[in-house]
């Protein structure tokens, strides 16, 4: 690892699905003997956070939840591991000098600490796609101005990144994002109307956090990923295609001007993309399942359906309108997602709320600074909450 100079690392969101997989990769590559774990962060699950901090010899452990400070302090007493809590402490975790930062907090909560890490020049392994959807070019510029690399972790974007040679970017014709179609791939709108979060979270191929699992069922996750691809790879919206591929074996593809299509394939296991982001441009040796093509036998493809999955249409709307519409779409949907999990609105109403708030906030302005992004985010959340309350009253 020494020649890569990514030995000092931080993991924002270490207790989540991506965070746990990241620590598994770190353990496979030598653990605390090979890496200096500068900071790890979590939210309410302080028992796991403390266990991780001890096992990996982290220097700083931060919980986003101030009420959990005492519990975390207690769990790590006598270890010499520094403990902190709250939003400012999360930003501080991003700021602590390290070579590589895994951005794996879920939602807009991840933006400020990730930007803090980007601004001081760390390489950013980006799982938190919401950073790019909300802040777009501002986020890309924060990383490049800081001098670090932006390395995608989202499986689709990692696949594209791996299929894209820097000196062939001019010859890229299209980006093909694969989508599993989620648990409701074959459902009618009527069938989707009555589903609960427990049903919607059961993804056919990937084991992931709650928000992204629900987002896979509504294909809102794919909508975020379209916008993520636009900013990561500098392509036009009309160069981004989505294809439903239920086996999730082809993780995404790049089509070139000569008709060639390059793809990256693998078993659905995030550790491959995480390991690549950690050792790029090298590849690590990882103990993950290998593809067995004979067992696989076939790969299927279907065109996506924007009528049953309106989130895909909203992604185009957001990209066409530009400005802060990405931040608005993301924030409104995050509020709608919580309302759906709390059984306050139905599954189909998540997209309705996002669309309504996006329409209300057309012409809300452009994002010149990060503060403009945060302002649009706050306003979209307020309006989404209002729209949800109105739907509840009408029901
Ligand atoms: P998760 O819910 O399993 O974990 C989220 C992490 O964020 C946890 O560590 C949690 O403690 C922390 N967190 C939650 N709320 C917080 C808050 N308000 N402030 C600070 N920290 C908070 O989520 P996940 O599935 O690991 O996803 C993390 C990110 O990675 C998301 O942006 C998701 O879209 C992206 N992603 C995940 C996968 C996957 O396979 N899970 C794949 C691609 C991209
Ligand atoms: Mg993905």
UniProtKB/TrEMBL annotation:
GO MF entries: 1-deoxy-D-xylulose-5-phosphate reductoisomerase activity; isomerase activity; manganese ion binding; NADPH binding
Domain spans labelled 1-deoxy-D-xylulose 5-phosphate reductoisomerase N-terminal: 9-136
Enzyme class: oxidoreductase
Record-linked InterPro entries: DXP_reductoisomerase, DXP_reductoisomerase_C, DXP_reductoisomerase_N, DXPR_C, DXPR_C_sf, NAD(P)-bd_dom_sf
Catalytic reaction list: 2-C-methyl-D-erythritol 4-phosphate + NADP(+) = 1-deoxy-D-xylulose 5-phosphate + NADPH + H(+)
Keywords: Isomerase, Isoprene biosynthesis, Magnesium, Manganese, Metal-binding, NADP, Oxidoreductase
Domain annotation DXP reductoisomerase C-terminal: ranges: 265-382
Assigned EC number: 1.1.1.267
Coiled-coil stretches: none
Domain 1-deoxy-D-xylulose 5-phosphate reductoisomerase C-terminal residues, every copy: 150-233
Record-linked Gene3D superfamilies: 1.10.1740.10, NAD(P)-binding Rossmann-like Domain (3.40.50.720)
Residues that coordinate or bind Mn(2+): 154, 156, 225
Positions contributing to NADPH binding: 15-18, 45, 128, 130, 209
GO biological process, one term: isopentenyl diphosphate biosynthetic process, methylerythritol 4-phosphate pathway involved in terpenoid biosynthetic process
Binding annotation for 1-deoxy-D-xylulose 5-phosphate: 129, 155-156, 180, 203, 216, 221-222, 225
UniProt family annotation: Belongs to the DXR family.
Protein name in the entry: 1-deoxy-D-xylulose 5-phosphate reductoisomerase
Species annotation: Aliirhizobium smilacinae
């Amino acid at each position: 690892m020494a020649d890569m100079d990514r030995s000092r690392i931080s993991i924002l969101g270490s207790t989540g699905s991506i965070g746990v997989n990241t620590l598994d990769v770190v353990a496979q590559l030598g653990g605390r003997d090979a890496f200096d774990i500068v900071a790890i962060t979590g939210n309410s699950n302080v028992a796991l956070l403390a266990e991780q901090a001890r096992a990996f010899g982290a220097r700083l452990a931060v919980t986003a939840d101030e009420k959990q400070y005492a519990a975390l302090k207690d769990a790590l007493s006598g270890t010499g591991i520094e403990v902190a809590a709250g939003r400012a402490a999360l930003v501080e975790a991003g700021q602590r000098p390290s070579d590589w930062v895994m951005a794996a907090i879920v939602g807009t909560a991840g933006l400020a600490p990730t930007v803090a890490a980007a601004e001081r020049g760390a390489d950013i392994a980006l799982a938190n796609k919401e950073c790019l959807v909300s802040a777009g070019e501002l986020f890309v510029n924060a990383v490049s101005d800081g001098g670090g690399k932006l390395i995608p972790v989202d499986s689709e974007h990692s696949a594209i990144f791996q299929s894209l040679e820097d000196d062939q970017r001019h010859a890229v014709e299209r980006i093909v994002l694969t989508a599993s179609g989620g648990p409701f791939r074959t459902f009618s709108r009527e069938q989707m109307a009555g589903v609960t979060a427990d049903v919607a979270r059961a993804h056919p191929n990937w084991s992931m956090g709650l928000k992204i699992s629900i987002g896979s069922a509504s294909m809102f996750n794919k909508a975020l990923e379209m916008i993520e691809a636009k900013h990561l790879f500098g392509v036009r919206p009309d160069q981004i295609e989505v294809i439903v591929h239920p086996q999730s074996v082809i993780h995404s593809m790049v089509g070139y001007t000569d008709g060639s299509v390059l793809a990256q394939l693998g078993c659905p296991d995030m550790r491959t993309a995480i390991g690549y982001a950690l050792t790029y441009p090298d590849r690590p040796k990882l103990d993950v399942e290998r593809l067995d093509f004979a067992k696989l036998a076939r790969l299927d493809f279907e065109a996506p359906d924007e009528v049953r999955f309106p989130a895909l249409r909203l992604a185009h709307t957001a990209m066409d309108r530009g400005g802060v519409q990405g931040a608005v779409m993301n924030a409104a949907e995050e509020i709608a997602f919580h309302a759906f999990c709390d059984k306050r609105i139905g599954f189909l109403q998540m997209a309705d709320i996002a669309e309504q708030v996006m329409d209300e906030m057309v012409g809300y302005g452009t994002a010149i600074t990060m503060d403009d992004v945060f302002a649009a985010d706050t306003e979209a959340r307020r309006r989404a909450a209002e729209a949800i309350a109105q739907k509840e009253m009408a029901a």
